[in-house]
Amino acid sequence: xxxIRKRMLALxxxxxxxxxxxxxxxxxxxxxYFPSATANDAEGIFQGYAxxxxxxxxxxxxxxxxxxxxTDTRNTILTxxxxxxxxxxxxxxxxxxxxxxxxxxYIAPAQAFIDSMENGEAYAxxxxxxxxxxxxxxxxxxxxxxxxxxxxxxxxxxxxLAEAGYDSPxxxxxxxxxxxxxxxxxxxxxxxVPVAGGFPIWMYxxxxxxxxxxxxxxxxxxxxxxxxxxxxxxEFLRSLGAELGVGPAGGAAWGDTPVAFLAGQAAxxxxxxxxxxxxxNGADFEVGVWYLPSGPAGEDGAGYGAPTGGxxxxxxxxxxxxQAELDAIWKWVTFxxxxxxxxxxxxxxxxxxxxxxxxxxxPLASLALEHPQYLVARDQLQHAGxxxxxxxxxxxxxxxxxxxxxxxxxxxxxxxxxxxxxxxxIDGILADYR
Length: 434
What we know:
Blueprint: H1 2-26, E1 28-34, H2 42-56, E2 60-66, H3 70-82, E3 90-94, H4 98-103, E4 107-108, H5 110-115, H6 120-125, H7 129-132, E5 145-150, E6 152-157, H8 158-163, H9 173-183, H10 201-210, H11 228-242, H12 256-262, E7 268-272, H13 276-282, E8 287-290, E9 306-307, E10 309-316, H14 323-336, H15 339-349, H16 364-370, H17 373-380, E11 384-385, H18 393-408, H19 415-430
Parallel strand pairs: 1-2, 1-3, 9-11
Antiparallel strand pairs: 3-10, 4-10, 5-10, 6-7, 6-8
């Protein structure tokens, strides 16, 4: 009898293994590609989210794939898709990648999924409008969902400002220069703006917006790169290093900037709010955070301006996915964009929790109460403009970045002439889309 029971138990265990394997094979697996632009542990964070999602959604597994920088991620996906590969099911890509991927038919609009939800309107309206703007086309259709969102913000060494007699951060570019010059020494820059290294457009946009005219609007066939405001913005940005001496000529490098700030080699820096947690945890001084004072003072004395930035969630579908697969993909998207996950993501990294209700959820609600620095980027959205995006985004962005770099490094002394030439190129490209 005992031997029979042992054989039955062994048979049961073997059958259990087969059944388990069958269930595993029947699981829907979602390939999820994600980048990182900061020193946060993105791989560890997303693996934790994937594990939590799998526990809550039996039969669906997430395969997180770290794909490097935003540019690496975009190029990896394009290479796979153009080579006939499957590519991801969901990816975090720059919010400005929308038109590049929609034109090729690689992504599915989120609008159809939202329309199928019982609470779709409430779900969509919970996102901050400024963060939603880059995910919406000119007809108002939502294509991608805000997730890893940011603005650049001003970080300042509050101890150094207090020692120099300043009890508040600068509110406009004149005050920015005054304080930066007061805090510049032979061993310390007064201000670092990371515009060196081939991608100055994002930081430059804060100055263009603050000077009174963003270089894009809701029309993806229009770019405004040679306006008086755009030219004045780059000339001021160039002057910070070339004439005023508060930072290096040509600007600072992206990765070096927060390192220099934490090391006491810079009194103030412009950088992404996505580095907020890292900087707060790494500083041995009081870190102040404020809106970007990038433009001339207005009637209220302020000259604030910033672009939005960061990544959205994109759904990839060539029409071959089953309804069950699409439903599973949308579950993952709504999971990542839920107030609970956005609250955790914002608290863990410093990125802006993209929906308003996330700021009432833990752990972000308590963290923001204890450290008001976390509220700055969210509140700065009132002064924020749309991040650069248009048809032929990659090509046009390359023209703009190259032109800005030539001006900032002094290669092109006549900013207006250089930007006029770039605008002519841009208009020629966009003419085909009008």
